[in-house]
From TrEMBL:
It is a single-pass type II membrane protein. Keywords: Disulfide bond, Endoplasmic reticulum, Glycoprotein, Glycosyltransferase, Golgi apparatus, Membrane, Metal-binding, Signal-anchor, Transferase, Transmembrane, Transmembrane helix. It is found in: Endoplasmic reticulum membrane; Golgi apparatus membrane. The keyword Disulfide bond applies. Coiled coil: none annotated. One of its GO terms (molecular function) is protein xylosyltransferase activity. InterPro entries: Glyco_trans_14, XYLT. GO terms for biological process: chondroitin sulfate proteoglycan biosynthetic process; heparan sulfate proteoglycan biosynthetic process. This is Peptide O-xylosyltransferase. GO terms for cellular component: membrane. It comes from Bifidobacterium longum subsp. longum.
């Protein structure tokens, strides 16, 4: 039975994190967790995970939405877990709002034979279109969320003001013609992680170029791995995550916060996780999923 490690970034809902971990808890499932240092309920998080087996690391980095800090956290988790003596076969990146929608037995069976990996990347046509549009905006302008993220700076809108002031100043990306976007939530084999970490080690300026950019956690891994997808046996059009970007009901924000009305779509999606879930909005949905998976 292969060992799996779940790389988790959580910033709210301690009780939801506990529920996710309890669902995933198994003799061959292990956890590297970052609980955002900004979370005011640190004691609740500590209590929520206190009796969970399989936790290998808990960190408290300050993660800024859209900033390099999220990339830095994931890469650190990957490096640490890759060196773990448990020799993990698969590495799964999830947030503290990704809920398992299959049983642990069904989950493991997907990865038991072979070394296929799963992530969502641009097609060639999507990449060509986005390289002359949104990727320029994300990569060739300056963003300072990671630098000025204290309460006073946020109240005074310092990152936004700096962005506007420096917007005319471009910093062209030399490898824009090789950029591919995708999702930063993936399930990758050890072989794929080995390739990724070797690439980062031998191209030390690669990660640095993603500093002071916006939402490039959705670009940094795809750009390295999509060109070698066949070599590494990566399915680049299926992340095994159910995410609703085109909801059938009104949504306050996207992706949609999932509720019971999405249950049938999730069940028929063959996804391993659904995101994003929240409390209390998703409680009924999670109960339905648990009933299907655990017979509760």
């Amino acid at each position: 039975m292969k060992n799996h490690v779940f790389l988790i970034q959580a910033h709210r809902y301690p009780e939801l994190l506990r529920r996710i971990l309890k669902r995933l808890e198994s003799s061959n499932h292990f956890f590297y967790i970052n609980i955002d240092s900004k979370a005011k309920n640190q004691d609740e998080f500590k209590s929520a995970i206190s009796e969970i087996s399989g936790i290998r690391q808990v960190t408290h980095r300050n993660i800024i939405h859209g900033g390099f800090s999220q990339i830095d956290c994931t890469v650190s988790q990957l490096r640490d877990s890759y060196q773990d003596e448990l020799n993990f076969a698969y590495f799964h990146s999830i947030s503290g709002q990704d809920y398992p929608c299959v049983s642990n037995g069904e989950f493991d069976s997907v990865f038991e034979n072979g070394d296929k990996s799963y992530m969502l990347c641009d097609t060639e046509s999507e990449a060509l279109e986005r390289r002359v549009g949104p990727y320029i905006e994300r990569l060739e302008h300056w963003y300072f969320m990671d630098v000025f993220n204290g309460p006073i700076a946020r109240k005074l809108h310092v990152p936004g003001i700096l962005k506007l002031l420096l917007w005319p100043i471009h910093r062209p990306l030399k490898f824009m013609d090789r950029i591919y976007g995708g999702w930063n939530w993936f399930s990758l084999s050890r072989k794929s992680i080995n390739y990724l970490l070797d690439y980062l080690q031998s191209h030390k300026d690669y990660l640095d170029r993603f500093k002071y950019t916006f939402c490039t956690d959705e670009i940094v891994y795809s750009t390295v791995l999509r060109p070698v997808r066949e070599q590494l046996n990566i399915e680049t059009r299926n992340s095994l995550r159910f995410v609703e970007w085109y909801p059938k009901r009104p949504a306050k924000q996207l992706p949609l916060t999932l509720e019971a009305s999405e249950y049938q779509d999730i069940v028929h999606s063959n996804a391993l996780f659904c995101r994003k879930v929240a409390i209390p909005e998703s409680l009924e949905l999670m109960n339905l999923i648990d009933e299907k998976c655990l017979g509760n």
